[in-house]
Amino acid sequence: MRPGAQAARTAGGCALNARGDRQDGLRAAVDAYCARIGADPLLVQGAGGNASWKDGDTMWVKASGTWLAEAQRADIFVPVDLAHLRDAIAVGDFDVAPRACAGSALRPSIETLMHALMPQTVVLHLHAVEVLAHLVRPDFAGPAPAPWCWVDYHKPGSALAGAIAARLREQPDAQIVFLQNHGVVIGGANAAEVDATLAALLACLRTEPVAPVAAVTADMAQLTIIPDAGIQQLALDPRLYKRLRNEWALCPDHVVFLGAEAACYADADSFIAAQAAGAETSLAFIAGVGVFADKDFGAARTAQLRCYYDVLARQPSGAALTVLSAPQLAELLDWDAERYRLAMAR
Fold first, then answer.
1. How far apart are CA 35 and CA 47, in angstroms?
2. Of 158, 177, 205, which residue sits at a domain end?
3. What total number of domains does the chain contain?
4. Which one of 70, 137, 176, 221 is at 20 to 30 Å from 202 when CA atoms are compared?
5. Position 151 in a domain
6. pLDDT surpassing 80 at residue 257
7. Which residues contact residue 223 at a Cβ distance below 8 angstroms, ignoring those fewer than 6 apart?
8. Residues linked to residue 224 through DSSP beta bridges, in sequence order
9. With bands split at pLDDT 50, 70 and 90, how would you rate the model's confidence at 7?
10. Across the chain, what does the average pLDDT equal?
11. Same domain assignment for residues 149 and 109
12. Model pTM?
């Protein structure tokens, strides 16, 4: 049901408001904006990121596992009971389950509560490469074009929502929330305002990637070389390969889609020997040779791997990076909500 429906109704404890052309216009603007940024891999990677808008006591939020790029081709937003979420937030209940309005078979985003916490009408959460390249460093200090706050890394969902709520109580005017090793949240009165803030932020944080190393041709038989020149740099460039071995677990989406460890091999012979010994891998990094994957690797995982390259390629030589700890990895990989999102993604 679109927010411009002819009559308001209450379904599943959720009031859907009928506001005619104004809400139809807001929906169309958000759909168009999401489709545009969703097509830019430096901003959105596959099913990553989410967006929302508020309409009275209803909030429309991206469904888990759907792609922002498809906003104008598919109904990717789920209406949830915003009043119910705000009541829970008011008493510090960050484990509250979003109440979706009747009629949608999709689940609201894992990060729905994050959107409810932001007071602005339109909220965007992205894993934008130019921003991530700074958020994975321990010394981030801005700059930003609007009031902002910083939130240390927390598992997405209730833990992260609680941390964001605490920071917003201290800085209620924040329009930008930086999430360590995760991404950025931007709020605005409409999609145009959010876009202007994002554009200014990207201009502040833009970094030139390192020059690529020449590629080689290789055939590993068991796996297929990934046809992305940037991804291939992870194995071909010794600087990136070293970081890959030591700084793999940078961001939650990266870990959820690609695993807690990278399968690295010093050369082709080492890879072939490991395969002969029964090692199984869907993704292999062979130093100086290339990056290979099985036929079922998929677009969603490829998008996450390309994002990882884009972030590493923007790191100054010798810059320290913050990686997720073993306990943080364990809680991400043993989580039903993320298993659902993986099943929905392609």
1. 12
2. 205
3. 2
4. 70
5. yes
6. yes
7. 281, 284, 292, 293, 294
8. 293
9. very low
10. 89
11. yes
12. 0.90
| 215 located within any domain | no
Interatomic CA distance for residues 170 and 166, integer angstroms: 7
Please report whether residue 293 resides in a domain.
yes
Alpha helices in 102-157, H assignment, sequence order: 112-117, 129-135
As beta bridge partners, residue 11 has: 14
Residue 110 near residue 285 (C-beta atoms within 8 A)? no
Per residue in 180-213, pLDDT (tens digit) is 999 999 999 999 999 999 999 999 999 999 999 8
Instruction: Let me know whether 267 and 176 are in one domain.
Output: no
Burial class from Cβ neighbours inside 10 Å (0-12, 13-18, 19+) for residue 208 reads exposed
Taking alpha carbons only, the member of 226, 256, 254 closest to residue 312 is: 254
Residue 206 Cα distances to 131, 149, 200, 213, 267, angstroms: 8, 19, 10, 22, 34
**Residue 279 reports pLDDT greater than 60:** yes
| Measured distance between the N- and C-terminal CA atoms of the chain, rounded to whole angstroms | 25
Domain that holds residue 142: 9-205
Q: What is the pLDDT of residues 34-82, one digit of tens each?
A: 999 999 999 999 999 999 999 999 999 999 999 999 999 999 999 999 9
Whether 182 and 236 map to the same domain: the answer is: no
Whether residue 44 is found in the same domain as residue 178: yes
At residue 342's C-alpha, the angle toward residues 336 and 343, to 5°, is: 90
Nearest to 135 by CA among 100, 185, 68: 185
pLDDT at 286: 95
- Omega of the bond leading into 227 within 30 degrees of 0 (cis): no
Q: Is 15 within the bounds of a domain?
A: yes
Structure tokens at 4: 């411009």
Name the token pair of 129: 């490469």
| Number of residues in the chain | 346
In terms of domains, do 190 and 232 share one?
A: no
Mark whether 199 and 230 lie in a shared domain: no
- Measured in degrees and rounded to the nearest 5, phi and psi for residue 315 equal -95, 130
Query: What is the pLDDT confidence band of residue 216, given thresholds at 50, 70 and 90?
Result: low
Residue 284 amino acid letter? A
Q: Report residue 127 as tokens.
A: 């894993």
Helices marked H in the chain: 20-38, 82-90, 112-117, 129-135, 158-170, 191-205, 229-236, 238-246, 252-258, 268-276, 299-312, 326-333, 336-344
